[in-house]
Write a structure and sequence with these properties.
The protein has four helices and five strands, in the order αββαααβββ. The chain has about 100 residues and is α+β, with helices and mostly antiparallel strands. The strands form two sheets. Strands 3-4-5 form a three-stranded antiparallel beta sheet, with no helix packed on it. Strands 1-2 form a two-stranded antiparallel sheet.
């Protein structure tokens, strides 16, 4: 089974990941929480997705799926300026909400 980019984006947007047994496509009953920074790390380091595509899967694609891309998902004039700064190991270094430092 291949997981499409849109399904991955929706799962990341909700910050929930339903664990699946990919051999027989059976859904495991438990759910786990996946933080966006950890999802980005998995996409880049484990799945070998190019960084720009992985970043879009964690930012603009979920915003588009949720119809929030007019104010979230990318850095542009007029958008909310909600930004997460990550360290090289994908740990959160700093967060900004509407341009104000929060961490």
């Amino acid at each position: 089974m291949k997981i499409s980019k849109s399904k991955l984006s929706i799962a990341l947007a909700r910050k929930q990941w339903n664990q699946r047994d990919l051999r027989d496509n059976a859904v495991v009953s438990s759910q786990t929480t996946l933080n966006i920074n950890k999802g980005l790390k998995i996409l880049v380091e484990d799945a070998m997705v190019p960084f720009n595509y992985a970043l879009n899967a964690c930012t603009i694609n979920p915003a588009r799926c949720l119809h929030l891309d007019d104010r979230k998902g990318s850095i542009q004039v007029g958008k909310d300026a909600d930004i997460v700064v990550l360290e090289d190991n994908y740990d959160v270094l700093q967060t900004y909400c509407k341009g104000q430092a929060k961490l």
